[in-house]
From TrEMBL:
CDD domains associated with the record: D-hex-6-P-epi_like (cd09020)
Enzymatic reactions: alpha-D-glucose 6-phosphate = beta-D-glucose 6-phosphate
GO BP annotations, alphabetical order: carbohydrate metabolic process
Active site: 155, 259
Entry EC number(s): 5.1.3.15
Binding positions for substrate per the UniProt entry: 56, 74, 79
Name of the protein: glucose-6-phosphate 1-epimerase
Pfam families, A to Z: Aldose_epim (PF01263)
Amino acid sequence: CKGINGLDKVVLREPRGSTAEVYLYGAHVTSWKNDHGEELLFVSSKAMFKPPKAIRGGIPVCFPQFGSHGSLEQHGFARNRFWSIDTDPPPFPTNSKSFIDLILKPSEEDMQKWPHSYEFRLRVALGTGGDLMLTSRIRNTNADGKPFTFTFAYHTYFSVSDISEVRVEGLETLDYLDNLQNKERSTEQGDALTFESEVDKIYLGTPTKIAILDHEKKRTFVLRKDGLPDAVVWNPWDKKAKTMADFGDDEYKHMLCVEAAVVGKPITLKPGEEWKGRLELSAVPSSYCSGQ
Ligand code: TA6
């Protein structure tokens, strides 16, 4: 169906009432609602939904690079391109009846900047309990025998009631690269993360499971990931927020990015090889009390 600015989007619905919406522009998930109709992802009220700008919020897909270096646009081009729907998807094992497969293949223009052939298949699925499952399969289809190397992230914006009452569990004592300190490598302290200022850290070698506890909503987001060893944690806070035209001044209070990623050790694929990166998100009631 048609979304904002007439962009095509697909709506997924599972029997108990959870829904998800994914735009063909960027294969960008912009909504994930539980069976009470509560929106679990953050999308800025100033998001532009206008190519070639990425949509501010939801789950931007960062490929073939995370971050900014070289000639590629920040976080790569995948999130700024139109993907197509695979109407006859392969029967991959999936415990979901409500899913869509989106495909991205290189354009002539992109081949100039990143001279590789690939097939990128993203499956977005709603599980029977309302979990949101994202599976990326990226295959090197170079005919010239050339391998290619990439980094990747599901740049997920979670909706939180109040960032100052959020904790993240699972990243304690890990090493991270601090984007605010020129990617300096440090080690995280020994207990759950809390937030009182801008944060932009790439945690390396993270566990399969990471939890984001929202005190006010008594809700915990659980990320389960496979093939994605790193996790980026980002909140722009007030000063950085004011520099972003597609982000409301106070919106930093109601969002947190925790991004399943592969950044520390880029992936290299030979022709014919395929990489798979799986992320499963669930939102469960939690009796978390801040300060515990
Ligand atoms: O994921 C954190 C980050 O790399 C930050 O440095 C910030 O740039 C953020 O991504 C948003 O990037 P974007 O290109 O979407 O504005």
